[in-house]
Amino acid sequence: MKCFKCGSERLSVIDSRSDGDDAIRRRRVCQDCEFRFTTYEKIELTLPMVVKKDLRREVFDRDKLKSGILIACRKRPVSAEDIDQMIDRVENALYANFSKEVPSAEIGNIVMHELKKLDKVAYIRFVSVYREFSGINEFANELNELE
Ligand SMILES: [Zn+2]
């Protein structure tokens, strides 16, 4: 970065503060001409790439995840707000635990964990679609576990 007035690269930060959740405000001064100015740095959070079962990579798609969850929650007493907050928690878990890539199965596990807390029926629906049960016994075990 260069001074806007004289072009010098000798700049000092004299103050730095967080401006809301995702921006940092820095007060800078040029050591050569003493010109002062403020910069804002926006922190860009990038979600990890999703690694599919066949090893293809794709960008995390919140809308796609949401539509899957909406189907599971159809006619259940779950509000749109609940679902949005749940997806926020899923995204936060991805930011926190995976930097570059995350297997799609891991996302499924996080979603299942969240749905289980939200609505048992929606959970079972989601599980029956996203997890491949090896047989009816495994599905029955899952049901028993809920009781
Ligand atoms: Zn300057």
Helix count from the secondary structure assignment: 5
Give the oligomer, counting copies of the same chain as homo and different chains as hetero: single chain
Overall mean confidence score, pLDDT: 84
Strand order of the largest sheet: 1-2-3
Count of domain modules: 2
* Helicity level: 40-55%
Gyration radius (Cα, Å) is 23 Å
- Class by helix and strand content? alpha+beta
Structural features, described:
The structure is a single chain. 45% of the residues lie in helices and 21% in strands. The chain is an alpha+beta fold. It has two domains: 11-42; 49-146. Strands 1-2-3 form a three-stranded antiparallel beta sheet, with no helix packed on it. Strands 5-4-6 form a three-stranded mixed beta sheet. The longest helix is centred in the middle third of the chain and has 18 residues, at 80-97. The protein is elongated. Bound molecules: zinc ion. Zinc ion is lined by residues 3, 5-6, 8, 30, 32-33, 35. Zinc ion (ZN) binds at residues 3, 5-6, 8, 30, 32-33, 35.
Quick overview:
This protein is an alpha+beta fold.
